[in-house]
Amino acid sequence: RLGKALADVVKKLSRAAIIDRRVVEEVVRDIQRALLMADVNVRLVLELSNRIRERALKVEVPPGFTKKDVVIRIIYEELVRLLGGEKPPRIDIPRRRGYTIMLVGIQGSGKTTSAAKLAWFFKNRGYKVALICADTYRPGAHDQLKQLAELIEAPMYGPKDSNSRSPVDIALEGVSLFKKQGYDVIIIDTAGRHKDEHSLMKEMTDIASKIRPDEVMLVIDATIGQQAYSQAKAFNEAVKLGSIFISKLDGSAKGGGALSAVAATGAVIKFIGTGEKVDEIELFDPSSFVSRLLG
Amino acid sequence: SELTEKKLEPIMNELLLELVACDIAFPIAEEIVDHLKKELIGAKVERSKAAIRKFVKEKLREVLLSLLESGGEIDLIKMIEEKRRRREPFVILFLGPNGHGKTTTIAKIAYLLLKKGYSVVLACSDTFRAGAREQLEEHAKRLGVKMIRHEYGADPAAVAYDAVMYARARGIDVVLIDTAGRMQTNVNLMEELNKIARVVEPDLKVFVGDALTGNDALEQAMKFNEYVGIDAIVLTKVDADAKGGAAITIVKSIRKPILFLGTGQRYEDLVPFNPRWIIDRLLE
Ligand SMILES: Nc1nc2c(ncn2[C@@H]2O[C@H](COP(=O)(O)OP(=O)(O)OP(=O)(O)O)[C@@H](O)[C@H]2O)c(=O)[nH]1
Ligand SMILES: Nc1nc2c(ncn2[C@@H]2O[C@H](COP(=O)(O)OP(=O)(O)OP(=O)(O)O)[C@@H](O)[C@H]2O)c(=O)[nH]1
Ligand SMILES: [Mg+2]
Ligand SMILES: [Mg+2]
User: Fold this and answer.
1) ∠ CA(B146), CA(B150), CA(B152), 5° rounding?
2) CA of B158, closest CA in chain A: separation in Å?
3) CB count in 10 Å sphere of residue B116
4) How many CB atoms lie within 10 A of CB B264?
5) Using CB atoms within 10 A of its CB, is residue A254 exposed (0-12), middle (13-18) or buried (19+)?
6) N or C: which end of chain B has fewer CB within 10 A?
7) How far away, in angstroms, is B213 Cα from ligand 1 center?
8) Burial of B85 (0-12, 13-18, 19+ CB in 10 A)
9) Model confidence pLDDT, tens digit, residues A254-285
């Protein structure tokens, strides 16, 4: 569907004699439609369309290019710019420093699965990786991460009777244990929460202030809609978000919510989840994300 | 004065964005706005912007209400009673995308039915995901109900079948079958779900969707309905400040009723669906 939207834009542009105001308006409307269908935040879409409109109206078509090339290029550039540029993120973590990554996110977004994927990813690159289950609420959370940890042969810390313990204590114990044992990367899985669960948001702030993670990574479901912006903003106000993991991009959802989350927080998208298995993780590639967004 | 098409154009454009901002899928929002425009053209309203705005809002409320009511209604207790009279278990199959609340919703519905005096057995037909059995087992323990399970990797249809046989043999009123989350784009998993439904012939196939879902809710509802068939819907995480547009998207696209809304993580956090409640949220 998005591919058709862009094809229509291209057709309109090639029929017009110049990039006049009316043609630009039609192009902007088509792009708005594509981005809204991709779940990008409405306000963000309006801001983007203003910038695209401004640039498209005053741009000159260089020799050898068509006006359609120029406008498509503008759209692509504005989106990539929002993501912080075309280059894929750098994932070089210093070794032997017990680099801690704390995963946070809304219920069911994919944190536990993504924690195991990250562990697999870093193990594959020769790092010594350990996992911590700091989710004391969800029934079976301990078993879920334990089974995944066993699958990838990484140790997991998380007392079996965790429902009577505080996540802050568990995280603290786990981090000091694994740092002492010389692990390179320590990944902490936390319970799902959303911005209106105030005591859970406070708990997340407490965990972060106690263990001082090197990185707090927001796991966001690719299917999330217009709430992505305000949820990410609230998470960022509770703990400074360093990075984003977009899960479930193997479905039909375009992941526009992640774009909104970046705009709301300045966090960098580093990884994407492309399936339920522990090796279905990829490094984020801004340009292929944008082309998929636009179809 | 009369509302003309020209006068309505900017109002309808603005309204489209407002509906999308409430998580109504874009194509559905377009249909609603087109329908509303037809209803409004030629209407006599006093000239002020405020009066027009108020009039449009009232009309929108009517359109949304009839849309949500077009899904019909299901009296779950009545259906359970009918099977009970025939000494047969009432079988509910739960399905839907990954992480959207199936297992938790099953626990909530079991809790509700137990409070009403019905006996319940759970079937763990999620034989794939790490910790799936332990998660449902913990709920079964807390609720004091039996859970039927096989080993990880077993045939989900076989687990479901065993649970129904168990219920028949013991005279248990309701069987709740939990399945693994899946993407509607995964043809193999949709076929697996189909097989469970064919083998067990559930009385009700319930789609569990997440209220935070955006445009994909349209694809999810249509494809799950196309492949397996959806009889009813539960929309979860409404407490996560979700405006509730997903309810509109799903009911408009597959015309099935929403049974419950999930409003939190505890067993009590399940409310019977009330269309006016969703519409009030959408229009505030
Ligand atoms: N298809 C697909 N499924 C995924 C992906 N990542 C996670 N999942 C599935 O999404 C569901 C939820 O994943 P979890 O890891 O349990 O999510 P969570 O955020 O830890 O959930 P809570 O702890 O309850 O907040 C599971 O069924 C996972 O298998 C992905 O990239 N693709
Ligand atoms: N806030 C809130 N959280 C919910 C609600 N319903 C479910 N959850 C949470 O969402 C997360 C995922 O729920 P599950 O029941 O595991 O979802 P699922 O569909 O069975 O997941 P998979 O089997 O992995 O596909 C858990 O953390 C639940 O506690 C709800 O109505 N509100
Ligand atoms: Mg988890
Ligand atoms: Mg489940």
Assistant:
1) 130
2) 23
3) 11
4) 18
5) buried
6) C
7) 14
8) exposed
9) 999 999 999 999 999 999 999 999 999 999 99
CA A154 to each of CA A134, A145, A151: distance values in angstroms, whole numbers, following the listed order:
16, 11, 8
Query: A183 with A157: CB under 8 angstroms?
Result: no
**Is B246 within 8 Å of A225 when comparing Cβ atoms?**
yes
The ligand 2 atom at the shortest distance from the C-alpha of residue B269 is 31
The amino acid at B59: K
Amino acid found at B260: F
**B161-178 pLDDT, tens digit each:** 999 999 999 999 999 999
Give the residue, B148 or A97, on which the prediction is more confident: B148
Alpha carbon A82 to its chain centroid, in Å, reads 13
| Closest CA relative to residue B91, chosen from B170, B173, B166, B150 | B173
Q: Quote the ligand 2 centre to A182 CA distance (angstroms).
A: 35
pLDDT of residue A15: 56
The H-or-E segment that residue A116 falls in is: helix A111-124
In the structure, which protein residues have their CB atom closer than 6 angstroms to any atom of ligand 2? A 107-108, 138, 192, 194; B 98-104, 126, 129, 180-181, 236-237, 239-240, 262-265, 269
Give me the helix-helix angle, B132-143 and A141-152, nearest 10°. 160
